[in-house]
Amino acid sequence: MIYPPAERQPTVDRLHGHAVPDPYRWLEDPGDPRTREWLAAQDELWRSCAAALPGRDRWHARVAELGAAGTVTPPLWRGARRFFLRGTAGQRHPVLYTAGPDGAEEALVDPCALDPSGLTVLDHWQPDLSGRLLAYQVSRGGDERSELRVMDVATRRIVDGPIDRCRYAPVVWLPDGTAFFYVRDRRVCLHRLGTAAADDVVVRAEERSYGLGSGPGGRWLVVSAVAGGGNDVWLADLAAAPPDRPDLRVVQEGTGAATVPAVGRDGRLYLLTTLDAPRGRLCVADPADPGPGGWRELVGEDPEAVTGDFALLDGPGLPGGPVLLVGRTRHAISEIGVHDPATGARIGRVPLPGLGTVGRMSTRPEGGHEVWFSYTDSVTPPGVHRYDARTGRTTSWAAAPGAVDVPELAARQVVYASADGTPVRMVVLARPGSGPRPAILYGYGGFGRALSPSYSGYVLPWVEAGGVFVLAQVRGGGEEGARWHRDGMLERKQNAVDDFVAAAERLIADGWTAPDRLAACGESGGGLLVGAAVTQRPELFAAAVCSAPLLDMVRYERSGLGPAWRGEYGSAEDPEQLGWLLGYSPYHRVREGVDYPATLLTSFGGDTRVDPLHARKMCAALQHATSGPRPVLLRHESGVGHGARAADRATALAADMLAFLAAHTGLEAPPRGR
């Protein structure tokens, strides 16, 4: 294949005794005419190759059919009013609704009504405590640089804003709805309705990645900030000091643990923490003395499950009084235990629809006997379920709004040994059959994020067509708790790559697939994982997709959200850490004369998290270096970013990825007319 020319320049950085070549540095600048010309040529190449992919239209049709299940979220209650998102087949974006005591639903924010082009996304929303006002944030073109507005729910009138630079800002309202805490430019601020954002009081001026939370009746303010593998946390009683000068008391600082505090309606401070418990435990304390010295363990660490959520039910009619629900994932499968809030003893279990994934639990702020949560698994579209503690029953509350013909498949969990002997799990999804089949090995392995069972219009068409889809739950993720995360970050990042490679070797050894039928796939941090695996063990894979990937780990912290990820990956400014990064950085491990797998890199023009420069530079490097006939292609898409996008554009991306991988692993597209 003849690729667009890309000049290799003699750029070499001298860093802490290392000579670091960077021949495609010029491709970092999207405004450079040479970059624009090269990108246009790559786009033309992709389009011509994509048009020739066998069954591309059939992949698109089936992804669209299975994606028509739509989406619905659990209710967020404010008194008798509830707020929720729902997206149906044919809608490009979910719509935010509200419903009052009579159950009548009213649309509040419809992104496509705001912008028929589909480029505007609803990023975040939070009603005040009365349900009278709604703070919501939208961004355009995928850049996630949100603008915040406040709506009067009754009249739909915008009463405040827009306030810019509010990227996914959490919002905590004061009880009277006259002001709210939020995050702007990575600082915690207090905004009073009707005043200019420039006059907002800065509550915490240090620029960090903050989260905010509140307590019953809006009395308590929780402020957290990412710190290394955990967070720093502070708690303020807003009844004890003016809101513009909250007395933020230290819950924890510099522990390396992750802690989520919440004051319950019973007046106790509940702390879900990994401090001295890598898989998580639940403690209680006096809010007046929130530091670790005052914590008392209520529900201890489970040696085989990760504790990740809790809810207190204390409504009238509960037999035996209040109950505490504790959400866990056992090897990435969700469960909810029922506990005695006084002793922490487990007294039961919440019935769940199957072996799948449960979302965050939602309760009424004023208390009650009910909890709502989402549920999904490999063949079940996400729906909302309700648990009633009075009866001990779980019932469906809101099913996915669309009807879909879901194929049957079998899911099995396989335990295998990584290079250092560590047991790792992978989930294999397949239909009955034998012999090596086309397979996709998917992984992420970063930021403590767990790969758990979920419905996917991307996975199901592949399995339905006779392929095997595998989720590798490698180190760096959160499937087995905080230690699992730490063992795949910083100086131990290679562990995640080794786990992924060992998964590929096991799939081949067990006869699920073969090197000429195996594809690797990852997105964002998973694109880094795949890039590292493919450059270290190219002979294992026939094809690969790296979507919105991090690939130049020497310069990753110079763009996008890279500076915020130093705690996960390290920094090239540190001599020791540079050595870690160079050890696996995919861009720096590309070698001339290697027969690399067929590789599709995808990038997005509005991506402000991972700069598209990574995909551009890696594409040029692989096109220059590969010695075989398999293609290296770049699919660049403008007008979208790293996260949410219109449903039709998500469908097109998924279908193109499947068509590319199928073409290079020998899988025939699904038949027409399903």
Tell me what you see in this structure:
There is one protein chain. Strand 13 and strand 14 form a beta hairpin. The protein is built from twelve helices and 39 strands. The chain has an eight-stranded mixed sheet, with helices on both faces. Strands 3, 4, 5, 6 and 7 form a five-stranded antiparallel sheet that branches. The chain is globular, with a radius of gyration of 25 Å. By secondary structure, the protein is of the alpha+beta class. The mean pLDDT is 96. Its EC number is 3.4.21.26. Belongs to the peptidase S9A family.
Key features?
674 residues, alpha+beta, single chain
Summarize the structure.
This protein has twelve helices and 39 strands. It has 674 residues and is an alpha+beta fold. The two termini are 36 Å apart.
How are the strands of the biggest sheet laid out side by side?
32-33-35-34-36-37-38-39
The average pLDDT is 96
Largest sheet: 8 strands, mixed
Distance between the termini: 36 Å
Poorly predicted regions are none
The helix content is: 10-25%
Organism: Planomonospora alba
InterPro entries: AB_hydrolase_fold (IPR029058), Pept_S9_AS (IPR002471), Pept_S9A_N (IPR023302), Peptidase_S9_cat (IPR001375), Peptidase_S9A (IPR002470), Prolyl_oligopep/macrocyclase (IPR051167)
Family: Belongs to the peptidase S9A family.
Catalytic activity: Hydrolysis of Pro-|-Xaa >> Ala-|-Xaa in oligopeptides
